[in-house]
Amino acid sequence: xxxxxxxxxxxxxxxxxxxxxxxxxxxxxxxxxxxxxxxxxxxxxxxxxxxxxxxxxxxxxxxxxxxxxxxxxxxxxxxxxxxxxxxxxxxxxxxxxxxxxxxxxxxxxxxxxxxxxxxxxxxxxxxxxxxxxxxxxxxxxxxxxxxxxxxxxxxxxxxxxxxxxxxxxxxxxxxxxxxxxxxxxxxxxxxxxxxxxxxxxxxxxxxxxxxxxxxxxxxxxxxxxxxxxxxxxxxxxxxxxxxxxxxxxxxxxxxxxxxxxxxxxxxxxxxxxxxxxxxxxxxxxxxxxxxxxx
Length: 294
Known about the structure:
Layout: E1 2-3, E2 7-8, H1 12-34, H2 42-55, E3 59-60, E4 75-79, E5 82-84, E6 98-107, E7 110-119, H3 125-142, H4 151-164, E8 168-169, E9 174-177, E10 184-189, E11 205-208, E12 211-213, E13 219-221, E14 228-230, E15 236-238, E16 241-246, E17 249-252, H5 269-272
Antiparallel strand pairs: 1-2, 3-6, 4-6, 5-14, 6-7, 8-12, 9-10, 9-11, 11-16, 12-15, 13-14, 16-17
């Protein structure tokens, strides 16, 4: 079933399949994050995620994706000033880098798309604050993914939170519908006005992805024709979850079922479990942590 402008409304069965794809994608990101340390190559990060997809019988939504030439990897791995679409390769990570990993899995014909930004070892306070603000901007956006709101409410939530914290949102790249295809309608910019845009209906699924820059919002495409970086060379960060609107509120499709127990990964539990950060929960009761669900 479709809504105007090509928006596809998913059935309960289709949402359940997207959730299965989302669990696989979350595990792929966990595997990728698990190996991040000084000296590891971005190709190694990609390989860790690719192995999870293979084991679960999932296909990559990214590998071969059309563009200036078919995308050559399973993930995008973007480092420091690289915002999105970084091609994994021989580059070796260094202590103090921040790394954004984006992965898409196709399972039973449905796509899950999610991304996370992490630090390599000890990072600067500025870099950590950028990561924290970007992650929380995602949850501010998810909280607006409710029936009766409009897509402009999603955009405004990201922009207001990010700019209130002294950073900028990207202008050229957007959140997007997701389902049988990785990119579906609607496109949802990281900026906009509340109360505008398409109405959010039960069964709508959107890959919500704040893309945040420390400096100016302008970007450039690097000579590899895929990687997008900040024009001024300053740090960037990117978080993403695939989210469904349901009668019971937002349903994050790309989380894990349980907490992580690896010491290096505990700090990312809020993201993988679909949690608002307790430090910025603004009065939300987070005894159980999870505030979104089907």
